[in-house]
Design goal:
CATH architecture: Orthogonal Bundle
Shape: globular
Distance between the termini: 12 Å
Oligomer: single chain
Helix content: 40-55%
Number of helices: 4
Strand order of the largest sheet: 1-3-2
CATH topology: Recoverin, domain 1
């Protein structure tokens, strides 16, 4: 099933507004979680530009859903 989802959604880089929309957290919460190690590190694209790989963000969301349902992390 994971291969099917990966094939359906092409890999792309998400900028902060897109990440905020996908995960439902605000900028400060995202960067705080990155510092704590509970949210994926962004990829540096330039001196003042970062983004997150879409597959990494999607995996993080799936893990949060699984944890909320008491399922093990897959």
């Amino acid at each position: 099933m994971t291969e099917h989802l990966a094939a359906a959604a092409p890999l792309c880089l998400l900028r902060l507004p897109q990440v905020i929309e996908r995960v439902g957290l605000r900028r400060t919460a995202i960067y705080d979680a990155v510092q704590r190690g509970t949210f994926p590190q962004p990829v540096r694209l330039g001196r003042r530009c970062v983004a997150w790989p879409s597959d990494v963000i999607d995996a993080w969301v799936r893990e949060r859903i699984a944890q909320s349902r008491g399922e093990g992390v897959r």
